[in-house]
Amino acid sequence: MPNLKRILDKLSPKTFYYDWKARQPTEHLMHSFDHVEFKKLLKYKDDTGHPQYRKYFNARYWLRQNVRRALLLKLNITRPMKILDIGAGFGYFPYAAHFYGHDVIGIDLPDDVLFKKACDFLKVDCRDYRIEPMTPMPSFGDRFDFVTAFQICFNGHIEGAPWEADKWDFFLEDLFKNHMNEGGRVYLEMNWNSTIQGWLPANVEALFKTKYKGQFDGPARIMLFAPVEK
Ligand SMILES: C[S@@+](CC[C@H](N)C(=O)[O-])C[C@H]1O[C@@H](n2cnc3c(N)ncnc32)[C@H](O)[C@@H]1O
């Protein structure tokens, strides 16, 4: 049975508003690349982590989703930022954020040929890196003002064992301390997880709210801030 919480989250007036606002810039972005060349990427359609990822060939739909995300995050009116997008996939969010003047690096799994080809096609700088629990990330050159991650899978989501608070805390401490500029923010869009019948284990939600001053936009989207030094 479709889950009511998930449906209500998708039907929020705010989502509709930003989706409407995204329509025109999406058309602009649709005209920014050669669609005949884009379709040639279909030859890599099986060289990806999950058959579901073929959905990303629907460029208009996914560009619109990502322009909506960028507008929701006010990337169209903020100063140019250095952004890290974790699990960048086809590169649509970095592509949209770059359109609004930001300098974006993506990271995604090293072995995903389709994502690599798609990012190359869109001229998105996507680096190979697999996030592992309790393992600090290497430096990607610069520090970031903003870290984003949409429809997160790096947290054990696929394996059905979503990270508990200790793993999130390690990951976020490393991010804020070693990879971000002062005043930097982290934005997470969680995936629905059927194992826990929710988006986040309760101890993770508590960690986000207390230590990282998490601002929730609905149950699945959270803005996090650096913890206060004691
Ligand atoms: C559901 S897709 C979301 C893609 C994109 N962010 C979006 O919202 O359309 C999850 C992404 O996370 C990547 N991913 C999964 N596990 C990862 C890990 N351990 N480290 C880095 N990326 C990972 C996948 O390859 C995939 O691109």
Describe this entry's structure for a reader.
With 230 residues, the chain is α/β, with parallel strands linked by helices. The protein has a single domain, classed as Rossmann fold (3-Layer(aba) Sandwich). The protein is built from 9 helices and 7 strands; from the N terminus they run H-H-H-H-H-E-H-E-H-E-E-H-E-H-E-E. A 7-stranded mixed β-sheet has the order 3-2-1-4-5-7-6. The mean pLDDT is 95. It binds S-adenosylmethionine. S-adenosylmethionine (SAM) binds next to strand 2.
What layout of secondary structure does this protein have?
Blueprint: H1 4-10, H2 13-21, H3 23-30, H4 35-39, H5 59-72, E1 82-86, H6 92-99, E2 103-108, H7 113-122, E3 125-128, E4 144-150, H8 165-179, E5 180-189, H9 202-210, E6 215-217, E7 221-225
Parallel strand pairs: 1-2, 1-4, 2-3, 4-5
Antiparallel strand pairs: 5-7, 6-7
S-adenosylmethionine (SAM) binds near residues 49, 87 and 150.
Number of helices: 9
Oligomer: single chain
Q: What Rg is obtained from the alpha carbons, in whole angstroms?
A: 17 Å
As for the CATH topology, it is: Rossmann fold
Write a brief caption for the model.
With 230 residues, this protein is α/β, with parallel strands linked by helices. The protein is built from 9 helices and 7 strands, in the order H-H-H-H-H-E-H-E-H-E-E-H-E-H-E-E. The site of S-adenosylmethionine has 14 residues, from strand 2.
